[in-house]
Design goal:
Layout lengths: L3 E4 L6 E3 L5 E12 L12 E6 L3 E6 L4 E5 L15 E6 L3 E6 L4 E5 L15 E6 L3 E6 L4 E5 L17 E5 L2 E5 L5 E5 L15 E7 L2 E6 L4 E5 L11 E6 L3 E6 L3 E6 L15 E6 L3 E6 L9 E9 L2 E7 L5 E7 L8 E2 L3 E2 L4 E6 L6 E8 L1
Parallel strand pairs: 1-30, 2-24
Antiparallel strand pairs: 3-4, 3-23, 4-5, 5-6, 7-8, 8-9, 10-11, 11-12, 13-14, 14-15, 16-17, 17-18, 19-20, 20-21, 22-23, 24-25, 25-29, 26-27, 26-28, 26-30
Length: about 375
């Protein structure tokens, strides 16, 4: 039996990270910079955001999608009736959505087949969108790619199968492997697929057309390709975002740090920005997922979801004295959530486990109090 699992960052105080967008507890979206118009100022119950060069997507807690920015190719024309969405990905001039049944929907430009979902694609647990190609991760660990292959970006190497996460950016692709190593393929005109030797313990990736950022388990950030040089003293990072020419990181506090280009104000973090649980970046545009109920409690990001046998595990950095609980549903419309044994934070990395994950599909969240 193949298990399809989805991490839902639905706790009041916790979030999980995915790149190039971000997910977190339901909240509002704060944007700054230029180039993307028609922003929905009434977005108040958003669980995920994704930005590209021209447009952005927001996933609402009710499983619907909002889109804004340029719409020349229909990239903001969310298909009517699209519901039960669990993840979104914004490519350049096209969009992807993953539904709770493991299927993928695409809209926008299709000049390279990037919106032509492979007929045999099933049980998808993660998606990512690049310049003119897309990636999907199936529950059995298979990485499926489609769209432009001009630079072999959809020619998935054998060593990239079975990853923890996937990322399509520009004309190249990345896979984060279970041991914390990174596999890259596609165009290498700026060294973006030239992964540094010895790189390990990577927990998250962010990338854009000509560079990659990697977040390691010790809260450090590494870059390769033609990336904006890292600011001095960047430490204790829990999330990263890669724009076309600027970058952002979420440090402990949580505090948003931005560096690189600032041609339209994308590098000027709004004063008083608090409760941030996720980041996303486009060309000259920045966005943050803000949980207004998280005052005084730093955002915590779920990492390393792993399925082995009948065991599902996920890790996070805990706070001393806070009680955490892993909960699951077999369908999104089922009620209530089933809670597993609570654990008490010790101020270090913790792992929670569902040892009896036998259903074909399961949705998870972590709550804190």
């Amino acid at each position: 039996m193949k298990l399809s699992f989805t991490i839902l960052c639905l706790s009041a105080f916790l979030g999980s990270f995915s790149a190039p967008g971000a997910t977190g507890p339901p909240g509002t979206v704060k944007t700054w910079g230029g180039g993307q118009t028609n922003f929905f100022t009434n977005l108040t119950n958003v669980t995920a955001i994704a930005c590209s060069i021209d447009h952005s997507l927001a996933l609402n807690a009710n499983g619907t999608v909002a889109a804004w920015g340029y719409d020349i190719d229909g990239e903001c024309d969310v298909p009517a009736g699209l519901t039960n969405v669990t993840a979104v990905a914004a490519g350049e001039f096209f969009s992807l959505a993953l539904s709770s049944n493991g299927t993928v929907t695409a809209w926008g430009t299709d000049d390279c087949g990037q919106c032509d979902i492979p007929p045999a694609l099933t049980n998808v647990v993660a998606i990512s969108a690049g310049f003119a190609h897309a990636l999907a991760l199936e529950s059995n660990g298979a990485v499926v790619a489609w769209g432009s292959d001009a630079w072999c970006q959809t020619n998935v190497p054998p060593g990239a199968q079975g990853p923890k996460s996937i990322l399509a950016a520009g004309n190249f692709s990345l896979a984060l492997m279970p041991g914390g190593s990174v596999v890259a393929w596609g165009i290498d005109n700026a060294g973006q697929t030239n992964v540094p030797g010895g790189l390990s313990n990577v927990v998250a990736l962010a990338a854009n057309t000509e560079y990659v950022l990697a977040l390691t388990s010790n809260g450090a950030v590494t870059g390769w390709g033609d990336y904006p040089r890292l600011p001095a003293g960047l430490t204790n990072v829990s999330a990263i975002a890669a724009g076309e020419y600027h970058c952002m990181a979420l440090e402990s506090g949580p505090t948003v740090v931005a560096w690189g280009a600032n041609q339209s104000g994308e590098g000027v973090v709004p004063s008083g920005l608090t409760g941030v649980s996720g980041l996303a970046a486009g060309w000259s545009y920045s966005a943050a997922l803000v949980n207004t109920n998280a005052a005084g409690i730093p955002a915590i990001f779920l990492l390393n979801p792993t399925w082995a046998g009948n065991n599902f595990t996920v890790s996070f950095a805990s706070q001393n004295g806070v009680t955490y609980m892993l909960q699951y549903k077999d369908t999104l419309d089922a009620s209530p959530w089933t809670s597993l044994t609570p654990v008490t934070g010790r101020g270090d990395a913790m792992t929670v486990t569902d040892a009896y994950a036998t259903n074909p599909q399961r949705f998870y969240r972590v709550t804190a109090q």
